[in-house]
Amino acid sequence: MPTSIGQKGKMKKALLITGLVASLLAVLGLWLHRSYTILKTKPPAPLTTDVKLEQPSSLFNLPISIEHTVLADYLNGKIRGNFLNADLWLQKKHKERVSLALTREENITISSNGHKLFCTFPVSAEARLTDSRFGKFLAKLLVWPIHAKAVVTFSTPIALDRNWHLKTRFKIENIRWEEEPVLKIGPFRKHIRADVDTLLSDNKRGLTALLDAEIDKEASLYPTVSDVWKDLQKPIVLTRKPVPVWLRFHCNDITGHISLNKRAIVCNARIMTNMRMLTDTTAISPPTPLPRFRQTPRDSISTISDVNFYALVPFASINRNLNDVFMNRRFSRSGYDIVVRSVEAYGSSSGLSVAIMTDLDLKSHIVISGRPRYDIPTHTLSIDHFDYSIDTGNPIIRTRELILHDAIRDSISTRLDVQIGSLVDRLPTIITRAVSKAKAGRTIDLTIDSLAIRKCDIRVGRNNIYLLVNATAKNALRIKRIKSGKVIRIRKQAETKDQNPTSQLPRPPDTDNKSRLLPVTARPLQLTNHF
């Protein structure tokens, strides 16, 4: 029995030793196989051609607004003081003639109910008798001057003509007389309210025609929209080194829809573009001119832009940055020390590859490869399957490099994430420059917010890493002021006695009849003369 127990113990011991040896041999074999596989793995060859880039289309939705206060400020600057003088006959037989002066002493205000624009126009009327059947001398003794005040309310729809000018059709909604226009001739009183109302309200010759003419002449969206249209087509510098590369939008089409809200007149402009990348701007075609205004269907109105464009990071820039950080940097693990002598990132068949030369305890050539990917939910950049191959050396020494590999790989991966990801962080600036380059000036105010990246397709080429970005943004362009120019002064003559007595009313404020209208010296205004 003792012999049997001793034999069994020896057998168990032998089996345990055999198992341990087998396990060690298996681990050694697996490690040798891995090292041998790594040794035999050739690093990815550099790309010899660059990626082919398409020309994606973009849609810019840009609401352009003119606040009611801006239009009111323009009219208050344009029509102020004594702005209209008219001579009126009080009878068809031309027995008494009155010289009437209209003056704006209080501010014009603009409002809207969302369908029409309302203009509240306070006026003062001063009139005196200049000719009478009793003679001018006697008329001066018997007739007192008229002093009257009224508040006129106009309404108009809003439209844009094919030249991007605001079009109005003002009509009188109400005339509220605070002081009635009454002519006193001795003991007699004569109301001339009907005559003054006609002067104010006549669609062809009155104050309504004056407002229509001035707004049509001066209030144009063309300069503003044209500047944005042209700026969108200017080359935008993406990088200057090692070679300059530009981004350019080519505008194809534009439509718009004019509408009213309670605070502003809004033109929802819809601009279609194609994007391309350039390496030379000397031979590019000039920007296409702004087309005539065409109406956007109401169901296509949006304030969200859908923008596709490229950004890029040159490998030359990446390598400068990597070498600044890692050249001569020491890594220590498990008693081994290595120092990085050079780092070179390049485009390969495996995506993005990084070749690293190490020195000190271990001299080797490590190549790490992976495919960059932009993660939309977290807005971070990562490199998928970032792994390596070893090109030279003895398999027995490989284990030291395997120990140090994680530290090198993780450090470089983090640095690449920061460097390429920082370009994505600059996208709002790139989009702002694309929509309106350096146009935050005195007459317009451009805002871009709610930027959201929906997709970022990263493509690795021979010389660059390209980021094809699809983003949405909410844009708005506010016109801060319309220059008023010179004040208008209009003089209207009454008909002479030998002319048709039914044509007593003042003629429209145009330049076709210079004998009836003093020259209007105001020149057309530009909404965006200065930025």
TrEMBL record:
Protein name (Swiss-Prot/TrEMBL):
DUF4403 family protein
The record's region (Disordered) falls at: 491-519
Highest taxon, organism lineage: Bacteria
